[in-house]
Amino acid sequence: MTQPLFLVDPTAARFELTDLAAAQLPVTDLSAHRGDGIFETVLVSMGEDGAVVVNRERHFTRFRGSASALELPEPDQELWDRVIDRLIAEVAADDPGIVEFGIRYAMSRGEQDEDGRFRPRGWAFPVPVDDHIRSARVHGVTAVSLDRGFDAYIGSKAPWLLIGAKTLSYAVNQAAGRYAAAHKADEALFVSHDGIVLEGPTANLIIRRGDRLLTPDPEAGLLSGTTQQLIFDHAQELGLTADYADLRLDDVKTADGAWFVSSMRTAVALSELDGNAIAVDEELTAKFQSIVRAG
Ligand code: PLP
């Protein structure tokens, strides 16, 4: 089975289908050796009425915001919508029974031409919902807290840190995941240097306190999550309020429920932090998961 890959030329508003296994990115592309680019990962949920691209608009809005933060050309929504729709059609044709999968789409600064101009390059390909994700949805995850190395709310004073942009520079996030694994935890939970809880390397955190859902304020120094926002949209129908708040590790450890939420995992219960058990709310976990899958 070949896997589709769409190579996108954002400058010419063109894209072409190729084989994911065969495709190669020139090493001179600035994404390859500088991580200079942006990306999104969306969940596609296949239902009887067709495919739902969960939070499609929110993802694109963030993609546009990331492009702006990195001073990349503004992405053309119509072009990227066509790419996503074609990719869904390719995946569904190859596997008509598929229930869900992800799509990762990206735009790099590309390469410099003789005149010193950069020609951005884009691509999009499917990513599977694998056993690791499925297991986390059912069993939840454990985490260790890690110092993110900056104080909360530094972003406005230090825009070059690109806080809030979803860039291709994920080496730190990957390293945090390895550190967590080496310390027998499934996940890392970043905390600002001054003790404010931020996010996981690839997920946001939501906690429940009584009938309140709370999540760290994106302004504190984290990526504003599409999944967290979708869950907050539905809080009222769950009989809950939803607010941004500065949380400390003790707030998470003593919560009535805590979740890592992200596009591919939907919502997974955080059952243990730094060796402390956290209450698991299975009913609400299931509700969060179905809210996200429904888009
Ligand atoms: N925070 C970081 C650093 C992420 O990389 C991600 C997603 O990959 C998230 C949060 C969750 O964002 P979303 O719910 O939009 O997938």
Work out the helicity level. 25-40%
Q: Report how far the terminal alpha carbons are from each other.
A: 29 Å
Question: What number of structural domains do the residues give?
Answer: 2
What's the total count of β strands?
A: 14
CATH structural fold name of the largest domain: D-amino Acid Aminotransferase, Chain A, domain 2
Taken from the alpha-carbon principal axes, the silhouette is globular
SSE series: EEHEEHHEEHEHEEEHEHEEEH
The level-1 CATH class of the largest domain: Alpha Beta
Unreliable stretches (pLDDT < 50, length at least 5) are none
Number of helices: 8
Over the alpha carbons, how many angstroms does the gyration radius reach? 19 Å
CATH architecture of the largest domain: Alpha-Beta Barrel
CATH H-tier superfamily of the largest domain: D-amino Acid Aminotransferase, subunit A, domain 2
Bound small molecules, deduplicated: pyridoxal-5'-phosphate
**Class computed from helices, strands and strand pairing:** alpha+beta
Largest sheet: 8 strands, mixed
> Mean of residue pLDDT?
96
- Strand percentage: 25-35%
Plain-language structure description:
There is one protein chain. This protein has 295 residues and is α+β, with helices and mostly antiparallel strands. It folds into two domains: 4-129, Aminotransferase class 4, branched-chain amino acid transferase, N-terminal domain (D-amino Acid Aminotransferase, Chain A, domain 1, 2-Layer Sandwich); 134-294, D-amino Acid Aminotransferase, Chain A, domain 2, CATH 3.20.10.10. The protein is built from eight helices and 14 strands. The protein has helices at 30-34, 56-69, 77-94, 131-139, 171-182, 226-233, 249-253, 282-294, and strands at 4-9, 14-19, 37-47, 50-53, 100-112, 118-127, 141-147, 187-191, 204-209, 212-215, 241-244, 257-262, 266-273, 276-277. The strands form two sheets. Strands 7, 8, 9, 10, 11, 12, 13 and 14 form an eight-stranded mixed β-sheet that branches. A hairpin with a 4-residue loop joins strand 1 (4-9) and strand 2. The longest helix has 18 residues, at 77-94. It is globular, with a radius of gyration of 19 Å. The site of pyridoxal-5'-phosphate has 13 residues, from helix 6 and strand 12. This is Aminotransferase class IV. One of its GO terms (molecular function) is transaminase activity. InterPro entries: Aminotrans_IV, Aminotransferase-like, BCAT-like_C, BCAT-like_N, Class-IV_PLP-Dep_Aminotrnsfr. It comes from Brevibacterium spongiae. Keywords: Aminotransferase, Transferase.
